[in-house]
Structure formats: structure tokens, C-alpha cells
Amino acid sequence: MGLLSSVSISGSALTAQRLRLDVTASNIANAESTSTPQGGPYRRERVVFTPLRPSQAGGMRLLSAGRDQHALQGVQVSAIVQSPDPPREVYDPAHPDADDDGYVAYPNIDLVTEMTDMLSASRAYEANITAIGVAKNMAQRALDIGRL
Fold first, then answer.
1. Mean pLDDT throughout 138-147?
2. Cβ–Cβ < 8 Å for 104, 90
């Protein structure tokens, strides 16, 4: 794997993790939203990642042991999906969104899960920034060696 492909892989991961952070922040912000323009309570969303294949990343290939091998070239967001879990029902007859029995449908969001996802995405983002920094330092050292 070359220097540019390692930066490209980390760059794709930065983009994907940034979107994951945005979706998680949206989940936290809407944890108490009982009505949406689509109707009903907000539904938790999550990001689905898939590998970025060489044909999607410019057709790069690795040659190994005399045969052509396709290597993965990063990650991409394939979808943002809504949770199929039912909303949680809370008895609050005074709430404007209460049904005839006095129950309000709240989003199916667990703040502990969201904070864990946010921490995980943040750490992955930091790790990829570090990987890009290491690649930059290796390139700089290679240039320095070439000057000697």
C-alpha cells in the first residue's frame, strides 16, 4: 500500500466518522421529540458503513505473488437507517401529543448508547487524523533522505 492510498483510506474514514458524529448528535438532540413532520416520534438513526472497493476508488490494485489482488481502499457510508424498535410509551395525559389513553410515544433513544457511539466515532476520527500525520511524517523523512 502506498503513501497516498493510506492517506486516502484515512480520509474516507474521516468523512464517514464525521457523518456518524452528526447522526449521533441528531439522535441526542431529538431524544424528546414526540412529533416529526413525517408523523409520530423521532426514530433513532444509525450509519451503515461498507468497504470502498478499488473500482470505486480509482481502480488501484496490489500485485502479490504474481497475481492481481484487489485491496480495500477505505470505507463509505452506504446508508443511514432508522431503528425498527418501537417508541417508548409514557403515561402523561397532559402532554399535547398524548393519545386517547393518555400515553405519549417518545423516541426509542438511549442516551448512554448515543454517548458511547459518539465517543467511539470521536476516537476513530482521532485515530485516522493520527494515521494521516504519521503518513505525512514518513513522506517528509523520505524527502529528507532523498536530499542526502
1. 85
2. yes
Angstrom distance (rounded) from CA 11 to CA 17: 10
Q: How far apart, in whole angstroms, are the C-alpha atoms of residue 145 and residue 17?
A: 35
87's grid cell: 417508541
Write the pLDDT tens digit of every residue in 116-140. 999 999 999 999 999 999 988 988 8
SS3 131: helix
Cα(121)–Cα(114) distance, integer angstroms: 10
Q: Where are the alpha helices (DSSP H) in the chain?
A: 3-29, 111-147
Cβ proximity of 79 and 16 under 8 Å: no
Q: Pick from 23, 141, 124, 139: which is nearest to 74 by CA?
A: 124
